[in-house]
């Protein structure tokens, strides 16, 4: 264990995420999960700090564990390759990209129901129902958009997954429930396709922000295409 090296940005991101998670459950009177999650830009619950703070919030132990495990596993390699500054830029830009795609999808849904991207002052469930000829199901969709917050580092994590798959396509990964190692260039595209399918399907009861995951993956792909340098020694070592 003494030989484990965690580069500085990954280490600090791990610490901050864990501190935020602990504070959420220890300081329940502050309602941090409500204050620091991010809401639709037209929501009365939206605050200017939320596009950053939401990346450090998690809903439960499994959520933070798998995100932090992926951050350590893939982020450590990418930070050593890119350096601290470039890695930090990548992490936050993909996290913001995740949010913007989620907002774009929500804006489209709002427009389909109301004909505009904003609800004005019609923000209670009864007001929305009385102000539109939409079905109760669509009114509940609107209410969920306006009063349902999004939290988690998953968008940035998906950016890291895509970056790792592009830069180290032949790296073999052990995947839960698959008894043999699978190369990154095979498993990561499948994972992205599953997210796309689940996002389009809109399964009832599914509270995962699949489009946010796809937004992080898309921005991660674009950044790696811009930054990629196949001639560095670190790439050759893992390739």
UniProtKB/TrEMBL annotation:
Question: Could you provide one GO biological process annotation from this protein's UniProt record?
Answer: proteolysis
| Subcellular location, principal | membrane
Q: GO MF annotations for this entry?
A: serine-type endopeptidase activity
Membrane topology, record value: Multi-pass membrane protein
Entry keyword set = Hydrolase, Membrane, Protease, Transmembrane, Transmembrane helix
Note whether Acyltransferase occurs among the keywords.
Answer: no
Name of protein: Rhomboid family intramembrane serine protease
What is the protein's species of origin? Pedobacter ginsenosidimutans
